[in-house]
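hiii so um. not sure if this is the right channel but i have a protein structure encoded as tokens and i wanna go backwards to a sequence. like what aa goes where. can anyone help
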């Protein structure tokens, strides 16, 4: 499975492509950061991010896109920009027919470091180690994008099993409800003695 991990942001948007193999084996295919000038109009900055993501999808052919879920920060302006960038990425992926999954920062940190409270240096160190990179990805947005892709590679099988179990439970509930309803109709038709 090829996963495009995206650490959204208006000023720096991290992109990382990882290929998941059997078990927990993962391999980095590409990493980059899209930078947009803070002085440009927001629409132009979002268009630049969209263009970069479209190019990555065309070049690297991911099976899925994993995006960091926006979380509450003290800087509202930063949250809005991050949410806008994440929305543009999701739109571009959806138009390309790719499924999009959102992971919280703590899910990603826990997946790659074992702790949902790891700092950026720990995430970068573990991404470098997990992917057997010669040098740590810089800036942190690049490492975060790779971490998102790794996180999704490792979480996807469990997420698929959970979805299948939920679908099976819903089907069993539907069948049971139909049997109960049929038994009730049969009981009402029986003559009373």
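sure thing!! here u go:
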């Amino acid at each position: 499975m090829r996963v495009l991990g995206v650490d959204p942001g208006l000023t720096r948007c991290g992109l990382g492509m990882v290929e998941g193999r059997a078990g927990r084996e993962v391999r980095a295919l590409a990493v980059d950061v899209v930078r947009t000038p803070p002085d440009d109009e927001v629409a132009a900055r979002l268009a630049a991010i969209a263009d970069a993501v479209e190019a990555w999808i065309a070049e690297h052919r991911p099976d899925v896109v994993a995006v960091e879920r926006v979380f509450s920060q003290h800087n509202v302006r930063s949250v809005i920009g991050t949410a806008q960038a994440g929305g543009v990425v999701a739109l571009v992926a959806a138009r390309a027919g790719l499924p999009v999954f959102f992971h919280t920062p703590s899910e990603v940190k826990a997946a790659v470091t074992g702790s949902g409270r790891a700092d950026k240096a720990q995430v970068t160190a573990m991404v470098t180690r997990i992917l057997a990179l010669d040098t740590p990805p810089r800036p942190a947005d690049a490492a975060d994008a790779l971490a998102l892709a790794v996180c999704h590679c490792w979480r996807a099988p469990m997420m698929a099993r959970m979805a299948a179990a939920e679908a099976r439970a819903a089907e069993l509930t539907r069948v049971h409800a139909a049997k109960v309803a049929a038994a009730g109709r049969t009981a009402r038709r029986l003559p009373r003695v």
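oh and DSSP finds five helices and five strands in the chain.
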